[in-house]
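Thread: Newbie trying to understand structure tokens

Hi all, I'm a second-year student working on a class project, and my supervisor (Dr. K.) asked me to get a predicted structure for one chain before our next meeting. I've only ever worked with sequences, so writing a 3D structure as a token string is new to me. If someone could post the tokens and maybe explain what I'm looking at, I'd be very grateful. Here's the chain:
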Amino acid sequence: MLSKFSSDKKLLFLLPSISKSDVEFLKQLVIKKEYSPVIDITYVLEEIIEAYTYIESGQKTGNVILKIANYSYK
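---
Reply by user tm_fold:
Sure, no problem. This is what the structure looks like when written as tokens:
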């Protein structure tokens, strides 16, 4: 999917295709505690430019999390 921000710049969003069996496989790994994601850094939505800049810098060593809402899991 291409999104145009201005007349001369485009941003490409890659949308993964995930099947139901893929989700079930990941679910089983989580249940068995055989999956542990690597979280590199977390940004809030207001810092999306900084997050994108960090990813493009080549410093990323794990997943970059973008928090959309301030929600606490309890």
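A couple of things are worth pointing out once you decode it. The chain is about 30% helix and 25% strand. The radius of gyration is 16 Å. Feel free to ask follow-ups in this thread.
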